Amino acid sequence: MTSIPNTIRRRGVYHLRRPVPADLRKAFRRKELSVSLRTSDPATARNLSRFAYLQSDALFDTVRSDPMLGPDDIRALVRDFYESILDRDNAARLASDAPMPEAARQARIDHYEELAENSRRDLAANAFGSTRSIAMALLAKRYGLDASFDQVDNRLVMQSLLRAGIDVCEALAARYRGDFSYQPKDKVLAEALAMAALPAGPVAAPAGPVVADPAVPSRLFSEVAEEFRAKQVRQKLWTQHNSQQVRKTYDILIEVLGDRQLSDYARSDAGTLKSHLEDLPANYAKSTDYTDLTTIQIVDQTRNLTPDEPQIERLSSRTVQRHFSALSALWRYGLERGWAARNPFIDFKFPAPKRARDQRSMWSDSELAALFDTPVWRGCQSKDRRAKPGNLVLKDSKFWIPLIGLHSGMRLDEICGLAVDDVRLEGGILVFDTTDRTLKTRKSSRIVPVHKQLLAFGFGAYLDEQRSRKSALLFPELKPGGPDGKMSANFTKWFSRYRSDVGVYARKRDFHSFRHNVRTLLAQADVAEPVIDEIMGHEGKGMGARYTKGFTIEQLKDAVDAIFPPVDLTWLVQPQEPVEL
Q1: Which of 197, 213, 234 marks a domain boundary?
Q2: Average pLDDT for 62-83
Q3: Which of 118, 25, 106, 101 is nearest to 63 (CA)?
């Protein structure tokens, strides 16, 4: 086979190797990019190399147009960091009536005091690595996944978070001593909280149309929006699903504010749009009640409801924030090209979203029992009549995927996309390897041990069967579907239809709800939160995020086996046979 362009082998593994353009070497602090393609197969490396090369092109383009972070941006980031951690801690407190044991309370005090001291040491030594993942997550949340900042800005954010992190730890330690009145000592954080507490002044309505700054050669919103959307899809920064969502955002803006020059939109316009979105029904795009109505007509209806009429659930704060994030990303694109003088969609306050437990309900014990007491697991009539009781138990994707979800907490996309080779031995323990090979996300690889109950149900035999058939995919009957070709698309439709057919369907109770069950079961088993985050594939929140790596496979296996769903599945247990690998 001929050599692969821009690729070298190191210890048998292929790496992309590409010179950094001369004008970007200062920003990258290197002359060359080198990225592992995580494969030793030449054909796979050739495909991944092409994709990684295109991604590096997109990276260079983004860095060439880096936005700059100002003091207000830094204050907003540290405020979000501080408040979200304290809110999350308080939500956990309010989730239970049970008093905390004295030993656990003292352990938390000691833990947060130690973290505060470690943070002071890192701050003194200019060691910002412990806040890197938190900084990147907050920047992506606020400015979008495509945003990129120069290294000085990134270090400033990490330094600011490290400073704020000391106050976070001190505040949490104080709370576990019974003192909820702690006031931050860091100047930046204190200023950020004080500014957020100031009452917003009234926004005066403009006397006439907003006049664009004549110094700014602007362009129509619709033109820039379509150009930006196409670029994001072309560079694979957005999926087709993302693109469709954002197009709806653009359509609503044009409907409410009109299609104007990008520089014509003011902050008061953004406020008008925010109020409009907050009054849209959550199901406005799906309900037949709104089929022939514009969103302006729909909002008029919801705003004119009397107290005696049934109230309508509005768009969630998170959804409204997603709309604003999409518009803010577009305005950054316009700012970089001189088509706008300011971004009117930044620095808006959005109420904290509901706890995940309130957004998607966990499966109750009785609901789990009812689900797994249905024909897929008890016996069905045939492959095409899975909801009809019979004597046939087919151990395929429909049988295994819900069981894996309930005994691992893995995401549906992760499970449906597993290859046979992704189930392997690690230190003598059978694991699911959910490594993301696309190079387009920031997720790191994750290993989830296979639960002992899955092996008891015959998963090892199923795996051996797929290997003997030389199947590449763990669930070969699954086919890509939906606009992004996801392996989970068709299973999602089937699972919804099946639950309805067997009478266990409930709103906001779906496959993702298994993850909430698993997290709760792990917490009830006293598994440490960093270990839970590692198993669940979360980056971890707060200053504890730095401890989410480095667990042994034995620790992870013990934690996964502690997931003990409160449902009797003993009839599924099969005679044990060794797994052939």
Answers
A1: 197
A2: 70
A3: 25
> Tens digit of pLDDT for each residue in 311-368?
788 888 888 888 998 898 899 888 888 888 888 998 788 775 554 444 557 898 899 9
Task: Kindly report, residue by residue over 202-242, the tens digit of the pLDDT.
Answer: 433 343 444 434 444 678 999 999 999 888 888 877 778 88
Residue 52 · residue 16 · CB < 8 Å: yes
Percentage with pLDDT > 90 across the chain: 27
Is position 581 within any domain?
Answer: no
Q: Which residue type, as a one-letter code, is found at position 462?
A: Y
Confidence at residue 391, expressed as pLDDT on a 0 to 100 scale: 93
Question: Does the pLDDT of residue 456 top 50, yes or no?
Answer: yes
Kindly report, residue by residue over 117-146, the tens digit of the pLDDT.
Answer: 888 888 888 887 777 777 777 776 666 555
- Is 246 within a domain? yes
CA distances from residue 216 to 9, 68, 262, 406 in whole angstroms, order as listed: 50, 19, 10, 56
374, 504 contact by CB (below 8 A): yes
Contact 574, 457 (CB under 8 A): yes
Which DSSP string corresponds to 501-522? Answer: HTT--BTTBSTTHHHHHHHHHH
The verdict on 338 and 380 lying in the same domain is no
Tell the residue number behind the tokens 């919801």, with chain if given.
Answer: 302
Q: Give 368: exposed, middle or buried? Use CB within 10 Å, 0-12, 13-18, 19+.
A: buried
69, with CB counted inside 10 A (0-12, 13-18, 19+), is buried
What local confidence, expressed as pLDDT, does residue 411 receive?
92
Q: Verify that 329 and 367 share a domain, yes or no.
A: no
| Residue 79 sits in the same domain as residue 190 | yes
Q: What's 229-259 look like in SS3?
A: HHHHHHCCCCCHHHHHHHHHHHHHHHHHHCC
The domain boundary, picked from 319, 353, 387, lies at 353
CA angle 91, 94, 99 (to 5 degrees): 130
Residue 19: is its pLDDT beyond 60? yes
Q: Is the pLDDT of residue 506 over 60?
A: yes
More confident site: 32 or 516: 516
Q: Which residues contact 551 (CB under 8 A, 6 or more apart)?
A: 530, 531, 534
Its pTM surpasses 0.70: no
Q: Is 579 inside a domain boundary?
A: no
Sorted by sequence, the CB contacts under 8 Å of residue 203 that are 6+ apart come out as 267, 268, 271
**Are residues 541 and 406 part of one domain?**
yes
Same domain, 393 and 542: yes
**Residue 6 DSSP label:** T
361 & 259 share domain: no
- Compute the distance between CA of residue 223 and CA of residue 503 in angstroms, rounded to an integer: 49
Same domain, 30 and 155: no
93, pLDDT greater than 70: yes
Specify the pLDDT at position 69.
62
d(CA 193, CA 84): 12
- Which residue range(s) make up the domain with 43? 7-64
Provide the token pair at 396.
């395929």
When divided into structural domains, the chain yields a total of 4
Residues 249 and 336 reside in one and the same domain: yes
Q: Strands 7-10 and 13-19, how do they pair?
A: antiparallel
Q: Fill in the amino acid letter for 82.
A: Y
Q: Report if residue 513 sits inside a domain.
A: yes
In angstroms, the first-to-last Cα distance of the chain is 29
